[in-house]
């Protein structure tokens, strides 16, 4: 049984003198010769060795200033390097920067953003929510398009973050909140996210919401809807752009929403890259990375063309696949 044990690490600790040796002291050092001597004597005494246990050797060879070895087996640890990486301390520098960005954005939105037309903002919000009937006022087409495209961004991020960007912190509460708060609700998850993502099973992929988020129908409807909204906004009255720019300079509602759209567009290429590499599609789909820079349309096109989650990401749920069972 000793031959089947792979020694991968040794921790050294002091062992007090238990008994007086009946023969001259022999100091044990970290040499291969002494290790072979200990192993041969341990095997001759028919001591059963188990993984992650202290190897008990003959106490006659131990002295007060002797080091004894706590040896661990790799039989139950098929990926020791991966576990060692996960046990190392996490680098919080990017998380601190993202939290600082989040705090700075919130401070700017509440204290520094222009707020010259609060009454008009409330009126626009009621019109966009269909809480106010037709009163003859023509809404700016760019503002209307921005409002509806912001309702599709959380769906795009849901398809990018689930399942390939999951973390110990659940992503779905932040995605749900992003329907109301946009990027201001997603930034805390970006800061708390730590790779690698846990594997997702085939059973989870067949259940809601992953079966909807991984569907090509969902991706196609999202892309077509976004394209229609953008065309509606762009192909319109040329004076709408000047009017929208004036709104941006005066209205907090439009200013903060426009900033939200820009930030969602800026973060999307990173999550496209993360999803692409997790699906092991970077060699074939790398041309979509520069395309993903195009606001909304680029990430939506990637979601339509990306492959399904591979077997390496979605292992089968059969317990018989475990060789130890």
UniProtKB/TrEMBL annotation:
Keywords: Membrane, Transmembrane, Transmembrane helix. The chain crosses the membrane at residues 92-113, 142-162, 174-193, 213-232, 253-273, 285-305. PANTHER family: PTHR36009, TRANSMEMBRANE PROTEIN. This is Cardiolipin synthase N-terminal domain-containing protein.
């Amino acid at each position: 049984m000793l031959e089947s044990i792979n020694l991968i690490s040794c921790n050294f600790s002091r062992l007090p003198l238990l008994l007086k040796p009946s023969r001259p002291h022999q100091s044990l050092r970290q040499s291969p010769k002494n290790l072979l001597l200990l192993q041969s004597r341990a095997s001759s005494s028919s001591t059963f060795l188990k993984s992650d246990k202290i190897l008990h050797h003959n106490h006659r060879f131990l002295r007060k200033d002797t080091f004894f070895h706590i040896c661990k087996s790799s039989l139950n640890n098929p990926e020791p390097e991966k576990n060692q990486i996960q046990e190392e301390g996490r680098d919080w520098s990017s998380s601190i920067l993202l939290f600082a960005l989040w705090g700075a954005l919130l401070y700017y939105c509440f204290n520094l953003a222009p707020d010259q037309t609060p009454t008009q903002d409330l009126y626009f919000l009621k019109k966009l929510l269909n809480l106010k009937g037709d009163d003859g006022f023509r809404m700016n087409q760019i503002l209307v398009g921005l409002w509806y495209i912001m309702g599709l961004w959380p769906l795009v991020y849901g398809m990018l973050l689930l399942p390939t960007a999951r973390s110990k912190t659940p992503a779905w509460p932040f995605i749900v909140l992003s329907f109301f708060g946009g990027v201001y609700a997603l930034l805390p998850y970006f800061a708390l996210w730590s790779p690698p993502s846990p594997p997702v099973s085939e059973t989870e992929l067949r259940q809601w919401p992953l079966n909807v988020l991984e569907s090509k129908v969902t991706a196609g409807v999202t892309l077509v809807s976004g394209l229609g909204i953008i065309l509606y906004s762009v192909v319109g009255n040329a004076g709408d752009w000047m009017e929208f720019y004036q709104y941006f300079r005066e209205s907090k509602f439009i200013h903060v929403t426009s900033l939200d759209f820009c930030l969602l567009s800026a973060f999307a290429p990173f999550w496209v890259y993360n999803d692409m590499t997790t699906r092991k599609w970077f060699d074939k789909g790398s041309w979509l990375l520069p395309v993903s820079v195009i606001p909304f349309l680029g990430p939506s096109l990637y979601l339509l063309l990306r492959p399904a989650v591979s077997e390496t990401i979605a292992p089968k749920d059969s317990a018989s696949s475990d060789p130890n069972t």
